[in-house]
Hints:
The protein has a single domain, classed as Arc Repressor Mutant, subunit A, CATH 1.10.10.10. A hairpin with a 5-residue loop joins strand 1 and strand 2. It is mainly alpha-helical and 117 residues long. The protein is globular and about 35 Å long. The protein is 50% helix and 5% strand. A two-stranded antiparallel sheet has the order 1-2.
Amino acid sequence: MYHPHSSLQAERAPVNGVDERVGNEQIRELLRAYGLRTSLIRLKVIDALHAADRNGRSIGVRGVHAQLEQLDIPLSFLSVREVLKRLCAEGVISLGSDKCYSLEPQARAVLEQPAPR
């Protein structure tokens, strides 16, 4: 179903000159909408999931952890797993039968709203 990419950089390349990467403010808004506090790990995990989602795939704990390592974000595998479990419990993301996580449609809609100016 999904084809892992070896580089997060390829997923964040501008398309038609426009950077599609979701902004931190949109992720903060998403966390507020779900009643969750903002933390660096939540911002980065949601950003990684959104990048995968835009590429039509879902990723597992190892995939998220590997992407964060590529960005030199020093988080343990266990920390990433716990954040994913919490986001899943709060309904922000879902865990598929393939053990991969993906954004829930409502969460995706919040992230895809135009950034406030």
